[in-house]
Amino acid sequence: MSKKMASRSGLTVATRSVSIKRGYSREFTPHGASGKRYLLDGIPAGLWADVRGRAKRDGVSLRALILSLLRDWLLDADRQRRTQ
Question: Is the whole-model pTM more than 0.85?
Fold first, then answer.
């Protein structure tokens, strides 16, 4: 998997190529009723249209993509903490 680093407003974001196909990913299943919901509003329309278009072309589930990015971000933070 390729990884690229981008920085906007001081926030470093890791991106990677994703092989998660569309549909409900079983990799990220909540345990019982503990699953949480989070609504992200105010996404720039052009950015969201581009993301949805690419996800559709690549056959990627947006839910799995977002959850993968969050998990990877946490893992990267843990790795950085351990190397310091």
Answer: no
